[in-house]
Every structure is written in structure tokens, then in C-alpha cells.
Write a structure and sequence with these properties.
With about 180 residues, the protein is mostly loops. The chain has one domain: Alpha-Beta Complex (paralog of FGE (formylglycine-generating enzyme)). The chain is about 10% helix and about 10% strand. The strands form two sheets. It has a four-stranded mixed β-sheet with strand order 4-3-2-5, with no helix packed on it. The chain binds calcium ion (CA). The site of calcium ion (CA) has 8 residues, from α3.
């Protein structure tokens, strides 16, 4: 999916070893996991689970997740299959995706790092946060941040969710980056 999206948009993938980091099309590319976590944390202390602290209920000002709005829409849903079912105990006001800028930015001024749609990460899957992934598993890719339909614990900065590169649904998108100098 990453390659398909990037190529469809006229952007070369940075994720294959042969062209890794050799980005054309103005240098636009996906973020590495290390870069993504740096931007998502936005200067928050290392012991913060979310950018705003350790209480997910304080995140509805900047994160569109599975909140009380969503919970109300899905009232009566069967939650027995969830090992942890922890909707955000607050109200972000959005059932599904929200237009960019609908909620507050993080301390770096970046919108929607947590929630709204999860974001594909550059490179092949590795078992650590190391962004050197030439030896990674390229049948799996990471996406991070969680989405409008994601429970609180899966929107943690450190959370790592994997999917096949061909996977797509309405909860995953891309965020592009470009080196300025
Ligand atoms: Ca929501």
C-alpha cells in the first residue's frame, strides 16, 4: 500500500533497499519510526505515555480516537472479544475522521499525530525502534498513532501496529516529510 500510494502520487518509495532514502519528487517520503515518535512526543518527557501525559482522558483536545462520541454511536456493541476495552473517557466530538485542523495541534504545532488516521511508517518491519531496517521483514510494515476507531491504549506513542504493505482501510493514511536543508 505504501508503495502504491507513493507511486500513485508520483512519489518514489524510500522503503526499498535499492532506493532507500534516495527520495525524488522533491524529497517527500514517509517518516521513520524514530522520526514519527519524535514529532508525536513533541518534547514531552520520556515517561509520558501520550504527548499530553499518562491519562488518556486528557487527550480529546488533540486526539480523535475511540471516544465517548464513538462509544455512544456503537452503544450495545459486543466488547467481549477485546482483551482491553478502554475508550477515551472524554469527548473529542468526532465519530469518524475529522478534517485536518479540527482539533488542537501538539506542542510542535503538528495536527493529528495521535488519532484521526494512523500513519504508515517508512521501511520494513524490525523488532526494535531502530530505523535501520535493511534487514527487516518487508512483508510487514508499521503504522502508528491510532485512528478515530482506536482504543486509548493503542494510541500510545510507543504502540507498534503492523500490517501487510497491501493492507488498506479507512483508519490508515500517510504523512509525508521532506528534508528542508
Ligand atoms: Ca472520536
Amino acid at each position: 500500500m505504501v508503495c502504491v500510494v507513493l507511486l500513485a502520487a508520483g512519489l518514489a518509495s524510500c522503503a526499498t533497499p535499492s532506493v532507500r532514502r534516495d527520495c525524488t519528487s522533491g524529497g517527500y517520503r514517509l517518516l521513520t519510526e524514530v522520526e514519527w515518535e519524535y514529532v508525536a512526543r513533541a518534547g514531552a518527557p520520556r515517561d509520558f505515555i501520550w504527548p499530553w501525559g499518562n491519562d488518556p482522558a486528557k487527550g480529546c483536545g488533540e486526539a480523535n480516537g475511540f471516544d465517548q462520541t464513538t462509544l455512544a454511536a456503537y452503544a450495545g456493541m459486543d466488547t467481549s472479544g477485546y482483551r482491553i476495552f478502554d475508550p477515551f473517557a472524554c469527548n473529542d466530538g468526532w465519530l469518524n475522521t475529522a478534517p485536518v485542523g479540527s482539533l488542537a495541534p501538539n506542542k510542535f504545532g503538528v495536527f493529528d499525530m495521535i488519532g484521526n488516521v494512523a500513519e504508515w511508517i517508512d521501511g520494513c518491519y524490525t523488532s526494535t525502534h531502530d530505523d535501520i531496517d535493511e534487514h527487516g521483514d518487508c512483508t510487514r510494515r508499521l503504522y502508528k498513532g491510532g485512528s478515530w476507531g482506536t482504543l486509548a491504549h493503542n494510541t500510545r506513542i510507543a504502540e507498534r501496529i503492523t500490517g501487510k504493505p497491501t493492507h488498506r482501510d479507512d483508519s490508515i493514511g500517510i504523512r509525508v516529510a521532506r528534508r528542508l536543508r
